[in-house]
Amino acid sequence: MPSPAFLGIDIGTTGIRASVIDENRGEIFSDGIAFEANATVEGKNEQPAESWSKYLDLLLCRITSGRKKHAPASSIMAIAIDGTSSSLLAARRDGSALSPALMYNDQQSRQQAQTIKQAAPADSAVHGASSSLAKALNLLQRYPDTEVFCHQADWLASQLTGTYGISDENNCLKLGYDSSTQRWPAWLAELLPVSLLPRVVAPGTVIGQVRPELIKKYRLENACQVVAGTTDSNAAVLATGAKQAGDAVTSLGSTMVLKLFTDKPVFDAGSGIYSHRINNHWLVGGASNTGGAALLQHFSRQQLDEMTPQLNPQHCTGLRYYPLPATGERFPVNDSDKQNMTEPRPGSDVEFFQGLLESIAHIEADGYRKFEALGATPVTAIETTGGGGSNRAWNAIRENITGVKVTTAANSEASYGSALLALQGFNDAEKN
Description:
The chain is of the alpha/beta class. It folds into 2 domains: 5-233 and 414-431, ATPase, nucleotide binding domain (Nucleotidyltransferase, domain 5, 2-Layer Sandwich); 242-408, Nucleotidyltransferase, domain 5 (2-Layer Sandwich), CATH 3.30.420.40. Helix content is 29%, strand content 21%. The chain is built from 11 helices and 18 strands. It has helices at 49-64, 110-119, 132-142, 152-161, 212-218, 232-239, 292-295, 301-307, 349-373, 392-402, 414-431, and strands at residues 5-11, 15-21, 27-34, 46-47, 76-83, 88-91, 101-102, 148-151, 166-168, 199-201, 206-209, 225-227, 247-252, 256-262, 274-278, 281-288, 381-385, 405-408. The protein has a 6-stranded mixed β-sheet with strand order 3-2-1-5-12-11. α2 (110-119) crosses α3 (132-142). The longest helix has 25 residues, at 349-373.
């Protein structure tokens, strides 16, 4: 008989990916399918939810058919799904979609955002045209027959169970759910009927079993369970192994995103700082506009690769810049007029490059200090993800400046993080 396995699904804007792990958290299989390109046009980014179902079906068939080498046949005991934050659709109680999904970066709900501004507390995560709540008000106006709002992750999970109207508290944060009190706040009823809101559970909670006909189709275990997921960014953090208060994850991509597990929630809406409750801790996050895109304003990728071996982390240049790809910063400084500052430029390109890296490291350190100033647990270890995480010299520079051990995460795939949630949910259910 095959050993028990646990499946995590990550669905985003460009594709869907799966990771299958064993009881010891080892990944035994992975696969993915790319979507057709879907560009944002004048702030509008919509997708038909039915296309997600099609891709999920294709992926599950590939995973469980046994036709691909190492594909698990019938040992999957639990499934968890993560999706893009604030991607929302209007549906009936039976799950049939009434609307296209307004994706995470859809900006069509500016008028609704102004309405929310008058009703919601200043530190709530619901502000802005891209929030789930702004989209919900927009959709309700366009589709007055709406019976339930569904996020990307919970709508797909419900496709497997057949029961709709259940979501996780991470996806519901930008819909207005208060994780501190673990309920929908009273002020929300001023904006829309609370009967349209999902029942909220913690990520990693078993929410049902896969429908019998799908168990047969995909050759799953007879009692295969569906576990509540989370957002894609949270799943990627879980994939690194970070889980204790003080554990941090810095993503070094085009921009720089900081995440830190802390003992109590931290919110600062003005700087885009908010906290998710996950695994009995709080995960606070903030995103700076500095990062790889700012570096590429000055050098090509080939030049960066050629100069990296010449960096000298033990010798600080003393240069202090604020590298930005364009005007404006969100975090740790909230200043829409913040200017890119990369002067004076020394004669040596390598010295200039190292000065830019040191400056980004200082911004990172300032970000974690800001979390701490707002009441978060001090950072004790930093896992790094993204393309910049493979630059050992930059990691050494960051260690010198932050004063914290920096390591490159062994895994940062959101699908793997969701597989860990599936395993956790299964184990917790077995104990109870």
